Every structure is written in C-alpha cells, then in structure tokens.
Amino acid sequence: MSRPILVLSALVSAALVSAPAISDAKTAAAPDSVLNAPNQAQFLQNIVKVTVTAQAYDFSRPWSKRAPNARRAIGTVIDGGRVLVTAECVANATYIELESADGEQKQAARVEYVDYESDLALLRPESAPFLANKAGLKLTTPNVGDQLSVLQLEANGNPLFSTGKMTTAEVVRYPIDDSSFLAGRLSVSLQMRDAAFALPVLKEGKLAGVMLRYDAQSSIMDFIPTAVVDHFLRDASKSPYEGFPRMGCSFSTTRDPQLRKYLKLNGTNGGVLVTQVLKDGPADKAGLRKEDVLLEIAGEPIDSDGNYKDATYGRISLGHLVCTKHFEGDKVRVRLSRNGTSVEAEVPVSRRSPGSYLSEPYVIDKAPNFFILGGLVFQELSRQYLKEFGSDWQRKAPLELLNIDRTQSETDSETRKRVIILTRVLPSDVTVGYEDLRNLVLKSINGEVINDLSDVPKALQKAANGVHRIEFAGDPSLIFIDVKSAEAVGPSLQKSYGLPALNRMN
Question: Which of 97, 217, 330, 376 is most buried when burial is the number of CB atoms within 10 A of its CB?
Fold first, then answer.
C-alpha cells in the first residue's frame, strides 16, 4: 500500500487508544431539525461502512506479527471522492473494504493520506465509480451549547441519531501521547452498535466532527472538530503532506509570585516560561532561549497558564493557536520578555518528524528494526516497545528507558540518532550466563560507539582476538561474545525460534 506521507508516522493495541466502548442505553431518534426524513436517502449516500483487517507487529518479538483483527467504522464521504475516518481505525491495515449504507455495494479501498498525530485518515476506493455522483458532506463549525447528533447505522442500514449538547472545547491529548489538539466534548448516550470508530458528529445535516473516544459510564464523547479536520484536508490537498506544525519548545505556567518576580514580570502581563528549546528546531532558529517568557503569539496575549482567547471557543491552550491555525513554514510572530526586556521574533513553525526522535513516539504501518547476535536481540528504543509492558507501561517499563523516551535526551552533547537496547536474550550455547539480561542501553561494540542500529554490523567487523567486546550503560557494563560461535549458531537460532531472518534494517 503506497502512502504519500510519513506522519508522527501503530498498533491499535500498542500505540493507540483502544476502540471506544459504547453503552446500550436507549436513545430517541434525532428531531427533524437535525435531518428531515425525506433527506435521509440523499444523506446516506455520503455515509459508508468501513471494515478494516489489521495486523500489528509484536515489538517484544520484532520478527513476528500479532494475530489479525477486524475493526469497523462509519466513514464520511467528502469532496473529491474520498472517505474520512480516524487514523486509529486504519493503523497497520492489511485490507480495507467500503460498503454502502444499505449493504448493496462493496469496494476495496486504500489509505490515501493518514496523520496519526491528528488521528485522521482519508480513504479512496479502488474503483472511482463507487463514490460517483456523491457530493460529500459539507463541514460546519460546532459551537459550545450546540445540539449535535452522532450517527450510527442499524444492521439494515437505517440511520440512528443520538443527540446531545456540546459542553466544552479544549486542547486535549489525542491517541498518540505526544499529540494535543482541540477536541469538542459532547454529552450523549449511545446505543451498542458494531461500528465503533469514526462516528460522524452532525450539525444541521453537516459534518461538525468525528468521534475521538467515548466513555460509556459518563456518556461523554470527545470528538475531533472541523477546525482540525479542515487543517488536515487542506494539507491533504498538497503534495507532499506536511502535517501540523509546532514551535519546537516546551513551557510551564508562571502563576508562582516568586517565579514571576524572578522573571521580572508584573501581575498583569501573563506569559509562560520557556523551559526547553529543541536544538535546531523552529524556536531555536528564531533565537528563543530557555527562561524566555512568551507573552504573545500571532498578536494574541498568552496568560500565565498558557491560554489565549480564541474567537470561537474562548480561552484555550496556545497549542491550538500554533499548530491548527498555522501551517508548515508559516512565520509566527511572537513577543517575549527576556530578563525583563521586551523582545520580538518570527518563528518558522514546522512539524517534527517521528524519525528525528531518539525514541520514536510511534511506529505504525512499518516493521520494527532488530539485529540478533548469537541470541542477543538488539532493537531501537521506541514508545511502541515501551507499551509492550502493558496498559500501565508508564510505571512498569524500565525507568531509564522511560526517562529517555520522556526527555529525548535533548542536550547539546547528544549525538545519537537512535537509542539501541538489548531487549532480550534467546538462550543458546553462545549466551550461557547472559540469559537474564534485559533492557540494557548499548554503548559500544568493539570500541565503536553505537549511535544507530546500522552501526552494529559495522562495529562487528572490528573484533579483536576473535571476541566481540560489548559495552552497556547498565549492569553488567561489559560482556564478551565469541565471533565464530556467534556466526555458527545463527542457523540453529532461526530454526529453534522460527526466525525469518537474524536482522531487519529498514
């Protein structure tokens, strides 16, 4: 499947939030003001059932895949003969099928664009006539206080509308943990239905958003509003896809009076403290520094909690102002306080590729890399690997690895492209005594510093006296592997453990 984009670019079970649970509460059909009965036939032409067969890689055994699973969603036809769904619906897809609402037509589809950060994807049917003469739903802006409807389909294809009130809009975490975007919150009770992904959220017959997640106990739904959808669609109209930009810095609040005094801030000028600046990132290029105070972004004053007053949604996080209201390459004007002096700068906002992280925040639609030496299994550290420790991975995964993933070791002295770890040991004659080693950060092999998995085979060429000298950043700090024995045991390892290969170096 060809995909024109790489996006902070995973396994529904590992990197994404699981399919939203839906209650079996009874809900009345939507009133005619939402969608008149005579218009239902025309409306349903712009709705399709989506069935996805997916198979994710097992990051604890990177040479293998997990069992395949099926997911079902409701896709919304939009302009251009494409179908809008959530990205988590199509993660690691091996086959995608579209079906008309009445079940009379079916068609294979492919992913045209996918953005796992904003959790949105566009599908295109393999045969263009499947969506011929379908204009697609128009977008509309949902507002706090609006009565909105969530669409589900009965088994016979009849629509089922559940109505509720939009109670708030705020910037929240999306399924990819490092991604935060605007989300609408809707109080609505949904019935149990087969399709649990990407339910359309409607306002007067137009698309107001797509379901992000649903809590059956509280009957609260978070949905991706059209402000985010529209940005995604605009990017998808260009090639290559660029995605949602960032400033490349982190910040903290300045509510503490003592901190404000230290920063030479008065009681009324708000502002947030810059705590980290990504090396060679947008903020760094614009000259921002740690301990600067961001006072304004694009002419909007920033308060001490990091919020600004949005014209549509009121006081919300500056993240929406930067990443959704701007596009890759935009120069965003900011005003700072630096040691009490006002400074202005232009930040060329851009998206950070997942491949530029020490520990990738997600690895989706591609196989994990690994290298096996005599039974020692070396892998690249990623958030995907850490999530193999279970739903409580943030507590159960090794602390050192969690710290690298959280901080990305973003210091001026950091030179590694990837963090390589010994994840496990496959028992063999070569690894006697090493069987219990787990999750050690690899420093060097034969005196060669390992900055990337591709450095491993190069370093193995420099063994001295027929022995590989392997150094770790933990305990034990040093182990030795016989060169000839490691080479000889390879075929038996493949046979014993069902390994298709001893390495994968994408």
Answer: 376
